[in-house]
Amino acid sequence: MHIIGMVIVGLIAGALARLLMPGKDPMGIIMTIILGIAGSFVGGFIATLIWRNETGTFRPGGLLLSVLGAILLLFLWRMMRRN
């Protein structure tokens, strides 16, 4: 169940990141999910640096940090694709 939850949160985080950061991205749904999952890991890493780690709990702030992580990765992806 944890992997399914990660995919769902990744899809939401990736889609929100692409909506919040307009521009042309020839990226399909699979790449959006991968971007969101990677953003979730980045956001989760930042969250563990800030707050105490409690396993098995869902926090809306975690989704926010996942979206911010996905935006950061999307920005880096665009910078790499541009060069």
Describe this structure as you would to a colleague.
This protein has 83 residues and is mainly α. The protein has one domain. Helix content is 77%, strand content 0%. It is built from 3 helices and no strands. It has helices spanning 2-20, 29-50, 60-82. The longest helix has 23 residues, at 60-82. The mean pLDDT is 76.
User: How many domains make up the 3D coordinates?
Assistant: 1
The biggest beta sheet is recorded as:
none
SS field, number of helical segments: 3
Shape assignment: globular
**How many beta-strand segments?**
0
Low-pLDDT parts are none
> How far do the termini sit from each other?
39 Å
- Class by alpha and beta content: mainly alpha
SSE arrangement, N to C: HHH
- Chain-averaged pLDDT: 76
Overall radius of gyration: 13 Å
**Content of β-strand:** under 5%
**Helix content class:** over 70%
Short synopsis of the structure:
With 83 residues, the chain is mainly alpha-helical.
Topology (elements, then pairings):
Layout: H1 2-20, H2 29-50, H3 60-82
Helix pairs in contact: 1-2, 1-3, 2-3
Question: Keywords, please?
Answer:
83 residues; mainly alpha
